[in-house]
Amino acid sequence: MITIIAAIAKNNALGKDNDLIWHLPADLKRFKKVTSGHHILMGRNTFESIGKPLPNRTTIIITRNKNYFKEGCLIAHSIEEAINLVENDATIFIIGGAQVYKETLKKNLADQLDITLVHQEFDADAFFPEIDLNLWEEINREDFIADEKNKFDYSFIRYSKKTI
Question: Which of 29, 122, 123, 155 is the most buried (most CB within 10 A)?
Fold first, then answer.
C-alpha cells in the first residue's frame, strides 16, 4: 500500500520558500502517529526542510544527485527505486514535496491519499496536484474547527483509488 500524505490548503497550497505556511499541531501529531514505524519517501528539498531523519521511521530521500548522502537515510534516484528499497512494510508513505507528489500521481503509483485539508487559502510557491475525483473516492473524513492550538478549520480526509 502506497499512501500519499499531505497537508494542503483550499487552493492546494503546500508551502512557500521550502517551508510550511501554517502551524497545525493536530496535523503534526496525526502525521507522527500515522507514519511511525513505516518508510517515508520524500524529495531532497523536503528532507532538507525537515533537516534530519524523523524518529521511528525509515527515511528514503529521492534525489537526482548521484553523490548525495545523509547519515541514517536511504538514497534513491527515482520514486520507483525508492519503493523498491522498502522491505517488510505494508504501508509506504510519500510525504512530499510537490514534484514527488505530482510524479507519484502521474505514474499512478499511489493506492491512497491521506490529506489534511486546511480550510483557508494561502500564498504559496508549491502546490499539491488537483485531486481527480474520477480517480479517487473519499472514504473517510473528520472535520475540526479552529481552536486555541490550531488556528484554522481543517479536515482529515482519506481517499482510495477507484477501481475501474
Answer: 122
Q: Parse the chain into domains and list their residue ranges.
A: 2-161
**Closest residue by Cα to residue 93 from 19, 164, 27, 1:** 1
- The answer to whether the CB of 10 falls within 8 A of the CB of 118 is yes
2-161: in CATH 3.40.430.10:
yes
Which three cell numbers, joined as nine digits, stand for 85?
528499497
pTM (two decimals): 0.95
What is d(CA 119, CA 67) in angstroms, rounded to the nearest whole number? 40
| Grid cell for residue 153 | 478549520
Q: Which three cell numbers stand for residue 122?
A: 494561502
Cβ-based neighbour number of residue 154 at 10 Å:
23
For 103, counting Cβ atoms within 10 Å of its Cβ (0-12 exposed, 13-18 middle, 19+ buried), the class is middle
